[in-house]
Design brief:
Layout (H helix, E strand, L loop, with lengths): L11 H12 L27 H13 L1 H4 L4 H21 L3 H5 L5
Helix pairs in contact: 2-4
Length: 106
Amino acid sequence: MFKFRPDIVIVEDTVLWVSIANKYSVLQIPEYTIKYRLHEGNSVDITNNCFLPRLKGLKKLFENKEISEKVEDDLQRMIISESYIGIARHYEYKRKFFKKTKIKLF
């Protein structure tokens, strides 16, 4: 039986589906079967730093050797790097990018 991992947030659905797909065949259908409502409280809102917990969850996913061996290294790096880009976008949005990265402009 598969369950959401309580130690993973933001990408818990991705981790669950990857775990299922690792054991069973999964088919994709072309139709939309859900509606996703975007609002200010969404975890994917740029004003929230959803990318940090996403990064942590994806790293935990790829710690699973069985899954990690099936996902090419380049793809893993691309997926992880998207989280780092999102973290940078969040801090830039909050005008804290240079403060967080300790980059000195002049």
